[in-house]
């Protein structure tokens, strides 16, 4: 939707879906006409409502520059504003649900006693560790790592004879 009405927004906020300031601006002053209708100080105030830090002036200036050169559609803004607000509300709902689920996963992982061991592995965070435990259950029920690999449905196999040695490959097996 921003591609249509304010494509330059992403030049100011690179990863706008992750930033509180960008989301706040999309709620309050999403279109170039909204931005150009305010003073620099007004835009800084909007930014500071979300940032609560001493940031703002540089971003506000970038936003004004982007709004001035915007090639976005300038008609149908009220309908677009309603659609954008609905999308932002939906995003916030999903974001809040995801945070709640991740918090519950962390609590459940803590109960297993494997949190510290699994999260000490580089690249494994709370979500990956909880998903792993959720999938395999208690790791103590396995006597070796090969059993976990088989449970996942993959088995490393090698087809060799006395004269020929093949490379090790993954053989897909059905999980039982």
Automatic annotation (TrEMBL):
Database matches in Pfam families: Transposase_20
Domain Transposase IS116/IS110/IS902 C-terminal span(s) in chain numbering: 116-173
GO biological processes: DNA transposition
Superkingdom: Bacteria
Keywords tagged on the record: Coiled coil
GO molecular function terms attached to this record: DNA binding; transposase activity
Residue stretches in coiled coil: 77-111
PANTHER family per UniProt: TRANSPOSASE FOR INSERTION SEQUENCE ELEMENT IS1111A, TRANSPOSASE-RELATED
Protein name: Transposase IS116/IS110/IS902 C-terminal domain-containing protein
Source organism of this protein record: Fusobacterium animalis
């Amino acid at each position: 939707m921003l591609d249509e009405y304010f494509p330059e927004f992403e030049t100011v906020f690179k990863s706008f879906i992750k930033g509180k300031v960008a989301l706040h601006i999309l709620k309050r002053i999403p279109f170039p006409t909204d931005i150009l209708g305010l003073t620099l100080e007004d835009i800084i105030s909007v930014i500071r409502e979300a940032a609560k830090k001493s940031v703002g002036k540089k971003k506000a200036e970038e936003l004004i520059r982007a709004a001035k050169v915007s090639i976005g559609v300038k008609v149908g803004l009220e309908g677009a504003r309603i659609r954008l607000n609905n999308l932002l509300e939906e995003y916030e709902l999903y974001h809040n649900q995801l945070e709640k689920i991740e918090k519950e996963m962390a609590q459940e992982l803590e109960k297993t006693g494997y949190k510290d061991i699994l999260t000490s592995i580089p690249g494994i965070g709370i979500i990956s560790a909880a998903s792993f435990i959720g999938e395999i259950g208690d790791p103590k029920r396995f006597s070796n790592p090969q059993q976990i690999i088989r449970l996942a449905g993959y088995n490393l196999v090698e087809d060799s004879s006395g004269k020929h040695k093949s490379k090790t490959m993954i053989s897909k097996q059905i999980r039982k």
